[in-house]
């Protein structure tokens, strides 16, 4: 299977992509639906904040743990079947949550949502890879990640309004119904590849194991994994859980100001994503420069914030949020590495391996920050001081170091392969000057 190679993208490709995008938007909606109903969940299940937090941790753990198995299944069965299975699984999870009256049942419901969510995003990326020309793929990939966040907006506003008007049961029954409607749309519209493009027959288990091993051995897959890890986790941890308490309790901002900064993080990501996509399409062999720049900006800005004497000024916190807004789009570069260095029959497993990086790092960082805060704060108090937050957020340096070493190591391996093929990269300044003059970026 090969994606289209002509410069013009057929209109049907956009129709197929919009269908896949709709499935991803609904997956994000399902993912975020419990988070915006946290207070109501505590009341319905008579549970404390720690039990509700467990829902998020388990959901992330299931999502991350299933990425490789789902990637293997994606290569075997194709995007359409996986998106259908994921949509039905998430709808079932929302149905169970609508009827749940106790914590164990609610946890099982969120596990189903996490499992269905795990099947969706990398399946949509595979659709993009097969329906769009190569230079267009990075931009469409970025747009997929950005527009998918519409699901979070749907959860934050219409779902919350419905929850207050109709109650828990009817709201989550409605969420399940939305999931079923998207499944019907996918069933009628989504196709794995353009007409006339041959599809490989399902691989046997021996070939599946061989492909997975080859996928893991590929340095292009590994640099994708470390790219996803090193760029994604800081912004994800900040947006999902610890950013709001850090801003309100640690930095003394008002809840409204903190909420505004978290909104700014999403808006920045929407603006940065297309720019990164175009840069990756124009400079495919310089993508690691973008990754390392985002890492340097993120770690450097956090260093200034954590070392600032006393509470940081608002302008510095705004800059921190702007920088963190680049993390999500930056992590998408990892999938582009995997796409360009793996053959078509391994695209699913390669994307699954990449997607593990950022979510495992995010999960471990969430747990580590919570553990440090608990150790440094006596009793069961949640009145954490700024010093505790500084120590807790310092755990990020461990994962930045791991990601940096991984990116540099596998970039070196890839450049050595290019050199053996006669492609030697010129110094970056020389390459930029040559491109501006209309010359070659290589020597």
Automatic annotation (TrEMBL):
Keyword terms, alphabetized: Membrane, Transmembrane, Transmembrane helix, Transport
The record gives the membrane topology as: Multi-pass membrane protein
PROSITE patterns, alphabetically?
Answer: MFS
User: Boundaries of each Major facilitator superfamily (MFS) profile domain copy?
Assistant: 16-415
Q: Where in the cell is it found?
A: Cell membrane
Q: Which residues form a coiled coil?
A: none
GO (cellular component) term, any one: plasma membrane
Output the superkingdom of the source species. Answer: Bacteria
Pfam families assigned to the protein according to its UniProt record, in alphabetical order: MFS_1 (PF07690)
Signal peptide (from-to): none
Q: Name one GO molecular function term.
A: transmembrane transporter activity
Q: Which residues cross the membrane?
A: 12-29, 49-70, 82-101, 107-132, 144-166, 172-190, 223-244, 256-277, 289-308, 314-335, 356-376, 388-408
- Name-wise, this protein is Sugar phosphate permease
